[in-house]
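My current task is to audit a protein record that another person submitted. My question to you is simply how this chain folds and whether the tokens agree. This is what I was given:
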Amino acid sequence: MLAGCIFPMSGIMLDEKPADPIFSDPVLTYNCKGEGTATVTVNADASPNYNYSYYLGKPDPANPSNYIYTLNTNTPANIFKDIPVGDYKIKVEYNLVAVATYSNLLIEDFGNGPPTTTTGIADEFTNPPYKGYCFNDQRTVGPFPCGTRSVEDNQYSVASFFWRNDTSWFPFKDHTTNPNNLPNTGREDGRYLLVNIGKEAGPYGRLYRKPIIDVIPNQPVIVDLYIGNLLNYGKSGYAPELRFELVNGAGQVVATQNTGKIAEGAYDPNRTKWVKISLSLNPGNYTNLDFVIRSGSQEYDGNDLVIDDIWVRQLPKSCLQDKTLTLKVPSGQGFSAEVTNLNGVLCKGDANGTFSIVAKNFDTDKGFYYTLNGGATNPTWVNSKVSPVNFTDKAAGSYDIRVRYDNNACLL
């Protein structure tokens, strides 16, 4: 770089890093058999630039130091419910979905001014023996380089206008400054790429190609552009269709996607309108590629289009990946009960015998149930929310003591 040369790069914005997710303390509950479940809530930053994926990891049986993660299918996904006894990891993945400043790979608006050429369109050297597209500068006085004043089959022009002696084509305006094709609006000399496609470029003839560099490997390449079917409203004829490609230096297609036919019917509501095309292409592990647009049709009688405002970009690679929480749901929390402090009556006929019923791992809000006559046809069940339950006034005799977790389960 020459001394004193400064290239201003204004308008670049770096977004704030979202706050780390907050994991709530696990809420552990157990059934009467000691089978525990945990509920964990993850509160993530409500950043509009990120969404989050939530995973539960379990130790790999073949290698317990590694964890196998599965997506949490609960609704809402940030709450993990009913996690049984065991060791786990809860993982929150950050997914970048929007930024203030993209990694721009290509911005093409075709500029403004008189008709001109574009690089990358098929010519006589692209796909022999096909001749490719002839550049028509739309001069008003001959000789005409392509044989006609108007842009006819197998011709193209990067222009702000076209000349015809009929109304078969709709007079599109520069999308960049006049996206709704309004009169007396925008730049009169704002250009677009106009192609009367035909067959002379061969199958999937190339309409446009530009190199894109500094591609972030394995990060989706986002493509937006605008296309107009030149056929006027009510005019029958074949519709254009396009194929988009990413091509590596060896000429191999890395990614491809087709549009289908654009404003096909004569009365399609998208006739006379710029149609936005949005798609995503996977660049694989490449950092330098060609972005290519091809025609998917070789028909005559129609198959004419204009293209404008090509924007190829990527989301920057986020430094944020994931956050994890180690979670253990312990075992050994089963409901149990025993009789302790058993003492007989002091003298025959007394009612001063003592014993205690001690219960463990019960729900203190609901309590547990016990009976002293469990062998009876209809035992008398008593609820207690405290343990131990002490008895100090029992006469000599046999007591069939039974305890259960709730009114219908885990009888001990």
